[in-house]
Amino acid sequence: QGQLVESGGGWVQPGGPLRLSCAVSGTIFSRYVMGWYRQGPGNPRTFVAHMNPDGYTNYADSVKGRFAISRDNAKNTLYLQMESLKPEDTGVYYCFAQRDGPYFWGQGTQVTVSS
Protein backbone atom coordinates (compact mmCIF):
# COMPACT_ATOMS: atom_id res chain seq x y z
CA GLN A 1 0.00 0.00 0.00
CA GLY A 2 0.98 3.59 -0.44
CA GLN A 3 -0.08 7.16 -0.91
CA LEU A 4 0.24 8.96 -4.23
CA VAL A 5 0.23 12.74 -4.58
CA GLU A 6 0.17 14.40 -8.00
CA SER A 7 1.49 17.87 -8.71
CA GLY A 8 2.48 20.06 -11.63
CA GLY A 9 -0.89 20.59 -13.25
CA GLY A 10 -2.05 23.96 -14.43
CA TRP A 11 -2.95 26.02 -17.46
CA VAL A 12 -0.93 26.01 -20.66
CA GLN A 13 -1.51 27.29 -24.19
CA PRO A 14 -1.84 24.83 -27.06
CA GLY A 15 1.57 23.62 -28.18
CA GLY A 16 3.14 24.19 -24.80
CA PRO A 17 4.78 21.77 -22.37
CA LEU A 18 3.93 20.68 -18.87
CA ARG A 19 5.45 18.15 -16.48
CA LEU A 20 3.42 16.24 -13.93
CA SER A 21 4.88 14.57 -10.87
CA CYS A 22 3.57 11.80 -8.66
CA ALA A 23 5.25 11.35 -5.30
CA VAL A 24 4.80 7.96 -3.66
CA SER A 25 5.16 7.03 -0.01
CA GLY A 26 4.76 3.81 1.92
CA THR A 27 5.69 1.46 -0.92
CA ILE A 28 8.64 -0.33 -2.44
CA PHE A 29 8.42 2.06 -5.35
CA SER A 30 10.75 0.25 -7.72
CA ARG A 31 8.61 -2.90 -7.73
CA TYR A 32 5.34 -1.26 -8.80
CA VAL A 33 3.82 -0.62 -12.17
CA MET A 34 3.28 3.12 -12.29
CA GLY A 35 1.32 5.24 -14.70
CA TRP A 36 -1.26 7.84 -15.56
CA TYR A 37 -4.90 8.07 -16.53
CA ARG A 38 -6.87 11.18 -17.36
CA GLN A 39 -10.49 12.26 -17.44
CA GLY A 40 -11.47 15.04 -19.81
CA PRO A 41 -14.68 17.07 -19.73
CA GLY A 42 -17.59 14.81 -20.62
CA ASN A 43 -15.34 11.77 -21.04
CA PRO A 44 -14.57 8.69 -18.97
CA ARG A 45 -11.23 8.15 -17.30
CA THR A 46 -8.86 6.78 -19.95
CA PHE A 47 -5.39 5.30 -20.01
CA VAL A 48 -2.48 7.60 -20.80
CA ALA A 49 0.78 5.78 -20.06
CA HIS A 50 2.48 3.33 -17.75
CA MET A 51 5.95 2.10 -16.86
CA ASN A 52 6.83 -1.35 -15.53
CA PRO A 53 9.53 -1.93 -12.89
CA ASP A 54 11.82 -3.21 -15.66
CA GLY A 55 11.46 0.05 -17.57
CA TYR A 56 8.97 -1.10 -20.19
CA THR A 57 6.65 1.72 -21.20
CA ASN A 58 3.35 1.92 -23.02
CA TYR A 59 1.35 4.90 -24.25
CA ALA A 60 -2.12 5.59 -25.51
CA ASP A 61 -2.14 6.25 -29.24
CA SER A 62 -3.43 9.76 -28.64
CA VAL A 63 -0.26 10.78 -26.76
CA LYS A 64 2.48 8.76 -28.48
CA GLY A 65 5.33 10.97 -29.59
CA ARG A 66 4.21 13.83 -27.35
CA PHE A 67 4.24 12.44 -23.80
CA ALA A 68 7.07 10.68 -21.98
CA ILE A 69 6.76 8.75 -18.75
CA SER A 70 9.72 8.29 -16.44
CA ARG A 71 10.48 7.36 -12.86
CA ASP A 72 13.13 8.27 -10.33
CA ASN A 73 13.39 5.38 -7.90
CA ALA A 74 15.73 7.27 -5.58
CA LYS A 75 13.09 9.99 -5.15
CA ASN A 76 10.07 7.65 -5.25
CA THR A 77 8.60 9.87 -7.93
CA LEU A 78 6.90 9.27 -11.26
CA TYR A 79 6.85 11.90 -14.00
CA LEU A 80 4.84 12.63 -17.10
CA GLN A 81 6.50 15.07 -19.48
CA MET A 82 3.89 16.44 -21.87
CA GLU A 83 4.84 18.30 -25.04
CA SER A 84 2.85 19.85 -27.89
CA LEU A 85 -0.25 19.92 -25.76
CA LYS A 86 -3.65 20.11 -27.41
CA PRO A 87 -7.00 21.31 -26.06
CA GLU A 88 -8.19 17.71 -26.09
CA ASP A 89 -5.46 16.89 -23.55
CA THR A 90 -7.41 18.91 -21.00
CA GLY A 91 -8.56 16.95 -18.00
CA VAL A 92 -7.78 15.69 -14.55
CA TYR A 93 -4.68 13.52 -14.57
CA TYR A 94 -4.48 10.66 -12.08
CA CYS A 95 -1.38 8.78 -11.05
CA PHE A 96 -1.63 5.07 -10.25
CA ALA A 97 0.55 2.38 -8.73
CA GLN A 98 -0.07 -1.36 -8.97
CA ARG A 99 1.67 -4.53 -7.88
CA ASP A 100 0.12 -7.98 -8.04
CA GLY A 101 -3.35 -6.83 -7.17
CA PRO A 102 -5.14 -3.58 -6.44
CA TYR A 103 -4.47 -0.20 -7.97
CA PHE A 104 -3.71 2.80 -5.80
CA TRP A 105 -4.69 6.24 -7.07
CA GLY A 106 -3.75 9.80 -6.41
CA GLN A 107 -6.30 12.57 -6.02
CA GLY A 108 -5.65 14.00 -9.48
CA THR A 109 -4.22 17.22 -10.84
CA GLN A 110 -5.99 19.48 -13.33
CA VAL A 111 -4.43 20.19 -16.72
CA THR A 112 -6.08 22.84 -18.86
CA VAL A 113 -4.92 23.48 -22.43
CA SER A 114 -6.51 26.53 -23.99
CA SER A 115 -5.68 29.81 -25.66
The run of helices and strands is EEEEEEEEEEE
Radius of gyration: 13 Å
What is the CA-CA span between the terminal residues? 40 Å
Q: Find the count of extended strands (DSSP E, 2+ residues).
A: 11
Shape: globular
In DSSP terms (H or I, runs of 4 or more residues), the helix count works out at: 0
Helicity, as a percent range: under 10%
Structural class: mainly beta
Poorly predicted tracts of residues: none
Throw out a few tags for this protein.
11 strands; 7-stranded mixed beta sheet; mainly beta; 115 residues; globular; single chain
Quick overview:
With 115 residues, the chain is mainly beta.
Structure description:
The protein is mostly beta strands and 115 residues long. It is 0% helix and 53% strand. It has no helices and 11 strands. The protein has strands at residues 3-7, 10-12, 18-25, 33-39, 45-51, 57-59, 67-72, 77-82, 91-98, 103-105, 109-113. The strands form 2 sheets. Strands 2, 4, 5, 6, 9, 10 and 11 form a 7-stranded mixed β-sheet that branches. A hairpin with a 4-residue loop joins strand 9 and strand 10 (103-105). The model has no long low-confidence stretch (mean pLDDT 93).
